[in-house]
Amino acid sequence: MVSTITGLLYPFVVLFGIYIIVNGHDTPGGGFQGGAILAAMFIGRYIVDPTNDLSIERAVLVEKAIFAAVIVIPAALVLSLAAQQTAWLREPYLIAMNLLIGFKVAIGLTILVFRYAFYEDS
Fold first, then answer.
1. pTM
2. How far apart are CA 29 and CA 3, in angstroms?
3. d(Cα 111, Cα 102) in Å, to the nearest integer?
4. 3-state secondary structure at position 119
5. In this structure, what DSSP letter does residue 29 have?
6. Class of residue 122 by CB neighbours under 10 A (exposed 0-12, middle 13-18, buried 19+)
């Protein structure tokens, strides 16, 4: 019963987390809040059905790639001075950074919990 309800709610909560991330530049919320919602859903799915179907090594690799993008994109914009020259670039920049930070937070929190869950006995 709980597994069925979690399966039904899963796509809606993921969409809600992405909505919070994408609209964080105009409304309260943003990368951290949306990422925490996404991580809570990933962790909740694990609590309901504890299977080891997540490759932690792959998740760490994705997290490192997102972290590199969080560093490279602002540096490239600052060095090119494109952010100061065009006002229309600010909103897409904020949305992109919120997305990157949101997914970084979601993956980071999920990795923390899964590392604890999988390696608790070792």
1. 0.75
2. 29
3. 14
4. coil
5. -
6. exposed
